Amino acid sequence: MVRPTSWLPLAALALLVGLTVWLDQLVQPAQARADGKNRHDPDLIVENFSARKLGVDGRVLYTLAARKMVHFPDDDSAQLESIQLEAFEPRQPKMTITADNGRLEQGGDRVHIQGNVVVLREAGARSEEARLTTERLLVLPEEGIARTDAQVQLDSASARAIAQGMEIDNRSRTLKLDRVNATYQPRSSAK
Fold first, then answer.
1. Where is average pLDDT lowest: 35-49, 57-71, 160-174?
2. Long-range contact list for 78-86, CB < 8 A, 24+ apart?
3. Which of 7, 61, 93, 97 pairs as cysteine with 124 (C-beta 3.0–4.6 A)?
4. DSSP state of 57
5. How far is CA 45 from CA 37, 48, 68, 112, in A?
6. What does DSSP assign to residue 36?
7. Continuous segment of H or E residues that includes residue 129
8. Strand bridging mode 60-72 / 77-87
9. What is the rounded distance in angstroms from the CA atom of residue 48 to the CA atom of residue 69?
10. What is the band of 23 on the pLDDT scale with cuts at 50, 70, 90?
11. 90 Cβ neighbours under 8 A, 6+ residues apart
12. 3-state class of 10 per DSSP?
């Protein structure tokens, strides 16, 4: 006959082994899925990428072009090389942004642009051409907004300004500069 106390050390050992296996699985990193979903691998690479956003009337609102676009499915982002973004707001001069590279986020709703960023606004009926340079810029194309906290240089025929940060609202035609040092030369009026 087997005495109940002879199973006690065996039961304690089995419980200890079970806890050890459970703790080991708890602290081990998750296994990589075979479909690559947990990795930041590209699923699409496009050379000479170009995209257009159309309005409900079929008119082009803005275009985005890049020498190369690499898309990542895990966070729906894309890396861009040699960027050109053009905005066509109604009754506004065309605005063109160029840069060395950038990153699309949230399906293209946010565009982080960096490296030799140049914003060129064409002359309008009541405004002269303006050129703005900086090192980085966040563009919200759906809202017509671009902003940065980096140093910005603005040049036009009658003005030059250096600022630490700015925000452009292309729809309302406003430019907000932070901590500005500017030189302005008013146009001479012909008599």
1. 35-49
2. 78/103, 78/104, 78/108, 79/103, 80/49, 80/104, 83/113, 85/111, 85/113, 85/139, 85/141, 86/62
3. 93
4. T
5. 17, 10, 7, 19
6. -
7. none
8. antiparallel
9. 8
10. confident
11. 59
12. helix
- Residue 7 makes CB contacts below 8 A (sequence gap 6+) with none
Q: What is the mean pLDDT of the chain?
A: 84
Contact 159, 184 (CB under 8 A): yes
Phi-psi region for residue 24, left (φ > 0), alpha (ψ -120 to 50) or beta? Answer: alpha
Task: Say if residues 161 and 134 touch (Cβ distance below 8 Å).
Answer: no
Tell me the pLDDT band of 30, cut-offs 50, 70 and 90: low
Cα–Cα distance measured from residue 158 to residue 170, given in angstroms and rounded to the nearest whole number: 20
CA distances from residue 125 to 90, 93, 109, 187 in whole angstroms, order as listed: 13, 9, 30, 15
**Nearest 5°: phi and psi at 78?**
-145, 140
Q: Are 169 and 188 in contact (CB under 8 A)?
A: no
